[in-house]
Design a protein that fits this description.
Length: about 280
């Protein structure tokens, strides 16, 4: 399986990881679209993913940890699971686990993070600034114990864990979501089920939509006359967006808002995400 990490360097400066800059949304789209169209055109196949043990939590990185935590976590899942390729789910991604929020060096175990604390301090950065960078980029953000429930150590162990448990485990945990039909977990379940149910998601070709839009990532998939249109607002600001595809006859398969509607001119709410489908005529 081919894994490309280019799309996970859009919050770097050049190849420098240990900085604080907003992620470059235009660059993110360009890289995803380049790989998707290239693999589709050559009848090739690759992995599609946001997270692994070396990457920060995606909802903290490209989404929202606050008011729109659930909406942004669902949107980011939708982007990946409707792409062409094999989608991967990294532990805790399916419940919207966030970055670790570690506050002192003795809480870190990742040698890269510990080394760069000393490197950045030697360059003259204030300690607070260094911790700000570590809280965003450290690999330990994705290595904290799985948040099973709200109990001590989040149900992961009765011993002392290698890394401390994220304090938000009392709110974000599997037990709180597995029976909630509106949870991030339920959204991931439905995305996986849709890929098995609709062959256009698994096998369709790929074409980007509105490639230069500053806040919307949208694309279409086609297979045997069936069509999928996937629309995602990547920001907390609302945006009006006109779909380049005529959406007459489309139905909504999944959205992260309960009352999303199918219209050619859409008013997208913060992090709103829609997957629209039309069967073969």
């Amino acid at each position: 399986m081919v894994f490309s990490f280019h799309h996970l360097k859009v919050d770097f400066v050049g190849n420098e990881k240990w900085v604080l800059v907003p992620f470059d949304f235009g660059k993110l789209k360009n890289i995803l679209f380049l790989w998707q169209t290239g693999m589709s055109d050559q009848n090739a196949w690759n992995a599609v993913f946001w997270c692994n043990h070396d990457q920060p939590r995606v909802v903290s990185r490209f989404g929202d940890e606050g008011e729109y935590w659930a909406e942004s976590a669902k949107m980011l899942g939708t982007v990946v699971h409707c792409l062409r390729g094999t989608p991967y789910v990294y532990q805790g991604e399916e419940i919207g686990m966030t970055n670790a929020g570690l506050t002192s060096l003795d809480q870190y175990r990742d040698v890269e993070s510990i080394n760069h604390y000393h490197i950045l301090r030697a360059r003259g950065l204030h300690e607070d600034s260094v911790y700000d960078i570590l809280r965003v980029h450290s690999r330990d953000n994705s290595r904290t114990p799985m948040q099973w429930d709200a109990s001590e150590n989040s149900g992961f162990t009765t011993a002392e864990p290698w890394l401390s448990v994220n304090p938000n485990h009392t709110r974000i945990n599997a037990a709180a979501q597995v029976n909630d039909p509106n949870s991030v977990f339920a959204h991931y379940q439905k995305l996986i089920a849709l890929r098995k149910q609709y062959d256009v998601i698994a096998y369709g070709n790929f074409a980007p939509l509105d490639e230069t839009h500053p806040s919307v990532l949208a694309y279409t998939r086609r297979f045997n006359g069936k069509q999928l249109v996937v629309i995602n607002n990547f920001y907390r600001a609302e945006v009006d967006w006109s779909c380049p595809v005529n959406l007459d006859g489309f139905t909504c398969l999944i959205s992260n808002y309960a009352d999303s509607s199918v219209q050619n001119k859409l008013h997208l709410r913060p992090y709103e995400s829609l997957v629209l489908y039309r069967a073969a005529k």
